[in-house]
Amino acid sequence: MKRLLIIVSLLLLVFPAGVLAAAGVVQGTVVDVGEDRLNSNPLRTITFVITATAGGVIPDTEMTNANFEKVKGWCFRGAEAFPTSGGTAPTAANVFVLDANGMDLLGSIDGGTTAYAGEGLVHATLKRACFPSIYLAYSGLHTNYYTTVKDLLTLKVSNSAANANITVVLIFSR
Question: At 118, which CATH number?
Fold first, then answer.
C-alpha cells in the first residue's frame, strides 16, 4: 500500500492535474464562401478549432451528420491549418483527413500514421495549406486526388504540443 501511495504521489508530481485534462475540438458548421473567381466553382468550408492539452493528444474528430449532408457529393479540395488567433502557439503537427475506411485523403501510405501532404501542416506562426493526395502503390509515387465526399470524414491531428490552439479548415468545391 505504501508503494502504491508513493507511485501515485510521484505521478502527480510528474503529471500535474492540468496536464491530465482532456483536449477539445469544436467543429463549426459548413460555410459557403462564394464562388472561386478562377473557375466559378462554389466553395464550402468546415472549420475545426482545436485545443490540445494532456500532452498534446487530440481526439480524432468525425464530421457531424449535419455537416456531412451539406458537403455530400462535393469534392474535397484541400486543408488549411494555422494557429488560432489569441491562443497558445502550437509546434509543428501533422494533419490527416480519413475517410470511413481509414484512407488518408492527404496521402498517408499507412492509414493515418505517417503523414504525407499533411506533414507539418500545423506551424507555430504560419498559415499552411495542402492539396489532397493519394499514394499509388504500383509506382511508389503520390498524385493529387480530388475525391467526392461519399461518407463521413474524420480529422486527425498528431504530434501536437500540449496547450496549443490550432484551427484547421477543410475546403470543398462543387
Answer: 2.60.120
